[in-house]
Amino acid sequence: RSALSGFKIPGLPEPIKVTLFADDTTTYIAEGDDFAVLQEILDTWCSAAKAKFNITKTEIIPIGERSYRERMAHTYKSTGQWMNFPQNVRLAGEGDAIRILGGFFGNGIDHLAVWSPRIAKVKAALDRWKLGNATLDGKRHVIQMVVAGMTQYLSDVQRMPTSVVKQLDKIMRDYLWDGKAIPPIAKEHTHLP
Asked: What superkingdom does the record give (predicted)?
C-alpha cells in the first residue's frame, strides 16, 4: 500500500516491490520512486520489529536503458549522490556482479567469471577424492554427489554457459578415467543404465 511504484512485470497482477528471504531484502523501485519513501517504510518496519536495517550493506543495481544506467553510475560515483539514495553504498557499474541469495546479478556481467570459483571448488574436491581407491561405480557416486551437488543451485538461478559445461565434462572425465587422454569407454556408454 506504499506510494512506491515498483516494477511492473508482464504476467504478474501486482507490481513487484520487494522480495524477502530470512534477513535478506531486495527492493525494486522505479525511476520515479523516491528512496526517502522506502527509507521511511524501513524505519517504520524496524521500529515495529525491534530490528535494525543495515543500510551500509545496501547495494544498488541500476536497471533500464544503458544510457540511464551509465548516467546514474557516473553521477553517483563522482558525487556520492543520486536523488535520495543512501550515500557511500555500492552501486554496480557495467560488468559488476552483485550476489543476491547465491545468484549473481548485474548488467553485462561475465558469467564465466561468476562460475570460475565454483569450477575450482569442484576440481579441488575431485582432486581430494582421487587420493582414495574408488571403483568405477564409486566414482560415479562421487561425481553425482560432488559435481551435481556443488553446481545444481547456481545452474538453476544463474544458468550454466556452454563453456562451463565443457570444463566440468573434462574435469569429470579426468577424474573418472584417472587422467587418461583417451577413455576406454565412450562417454555415451557411461551414461547408460
From this structure: Eukaryota
State pTM to two decimals. Answer: 0.75
Grid coordinates belonging to 152: 545444481
Q: Is 18 helix (H, G, I), strand (E, B) or coil?
A: strand
Query: pLDDT per residue over 50-92, tens digit each?
Result: 888 888 888 999 988 999 898 888 888 888 888 888 888 888 9
Give one word for 48, left, alpha or beta, with left for phi > 0 and alpha for psi -120 to 50: alpha
**What are the Cα distances from residue 120, in Å, to 9, 75, 168, 171?**
36, 37, 10, 10
Show contacts of 168-175: CB within 8 Å, 24+ apart.
168/119, 168/122, 171/119, 171/122, 171/123, 171/126, 171/147, 172/126, 172/143, 172/147, 174/126, 175/126, 175/129, 175/130, 175/139, 175/142, 175/143
Domain ranges of the chain: 18-105, 111-189
Per-residue model confidence as pLDDT tens digits over 105-127: 999 999 899 999 999 999 999 99
CB of 154 within 8 A of CB of 99?
no
